[in-house]
Design goal:
The complex is a heterodimer of chains A (105) and B (129).
Chain A: E1 4-7, E2 10-12, E3 19-25, E4 33-38, E5 45-49, E6 53-54, E7 62-67, E8 70-75, E9 85-90, E10 101-104
Parallel strand pairs in A: 2-10
Antiparallel strand pairs in A: 1-3, 3-8, 4-5, 4-9, 5-6, 7-8, 9-10
Chain B: E1 3-7, E2 11-12, E3 18-25, E4 34-41, E5 48-53, E6 59-61, E7 69-74, E8 79-84, E9 93-101, E10 103-105, E11 108-110, E12 118-119, E13 123-127
Parallel strand pairs in B: 2-13
Antiparallel strand pairs in B: 1-3, 3-8, 4-5, 4-9, 5-6, 7-8, 9-12, 9-13, 10-11
Classes of the chains: A mainly beta (105), B mainly beta (129).
């Protein structure tokens, strides 16, 4: 089975920062990656699908890139509401999630 | 408006069987272009995909389940079920259901390259003696 890993597991940032989170697949998966944001106590929210496609309603400061085994989620100009945990997910097969990356102050 | 709502027992004892229900609205479970998935999250831990079901009752299961979990649906009631057998304390988690758009190949639904685009609020299950 394909495994998904993320780095960093947590990071400290400030409002206005540019934040990059990396997701690595254990084997090549083309662009079959999604990214989600989860606030404490809430359901996850889809941000990016198919590696680089912005989900409807998601602010344009979020972007995704990558293919094969390495993928990145970038948040330009971090906003207060962006402090959350971010998960990548393999969007085919068994829909495996990564372990998460927490962005805090 | 598309919504999903999870329900089920909040507490179970080890070895019991319990069933969670996901009631959907705003779309039909007979729609070939969507599927419904179950995902869980133990306290403070990562998301774990459990299972999904297509309109034609085809299913996909996550690796760790080892056949203890069974997904099913009642299209007429707009409900998707997750039956969990022989539960253990490690099954303690918040359980979410979510919708995922899918593609069709020769009219058969298949996973495409889409995400879980609408989620329920989740239901918490605690397994303890």
């Amino acid at each position: 089975d394909i495994q998904m890993t993320q780095s960093p597991s947590s990071l400290s940032a400030s409002v206005g920062d540019r934040v990059t989170i990396t997701c690595r697949a254990s084997q090549a998966i083309s662009t079959y990656v999604n990214w989600y944001q989860q606030q404490p106590g809430e359901s996850p929210k889809l941000l990016i699908y198919a590696a680089s496609n912005l989900q409807s309603g998601v602010p344009s400061r979020f972007s995704g890139s990558g293919s094969g085994t390495l993928f990145t989620l970038t948040i330009n100009s971090l906003q207060p509401e962006d402090f959350a945990t971010y998960f990548c997910q393999h969007s085919s097969g068994r829909l495996t999630f990564g372990p998460g990356s927490k962005v805090d102050v | 408006q598309v919504t999903l709502k999870e329900s089920g027992p909040a507490l179970a004892k080890p070895s019991e069987t319990l069933t969670l229900t996901c009631t959907v609205s705003g779309f039909s479970l007979s729609n070939r272009r969507v599927a419904v998935a179950w995902i869980r999250q133990p306290p403070g831990k990562a998301l774990e995909f459990l299972s999904l079901i297509f309109s034609n009752d085809g299913t996909v299961y996550g690796t760790p389940l080892k056949s203890r979990f069974i997904i099913s649906k009642d299209t007429s009631k707009s409900q998707v079920f997750l039956t969990m057998t022989d539960v253990v304390p490690a099954d303690t988690a918040t359980y979410f259901c979510a919708r995922i758009p899918v593609i069709t190949i020769f009219d058969v639904p298949k996973l495409g390259n889409n995400g879980l685009d609408v989620w329920g609020l989740g239901t918490t299950v605690t397994v303890s003696s």
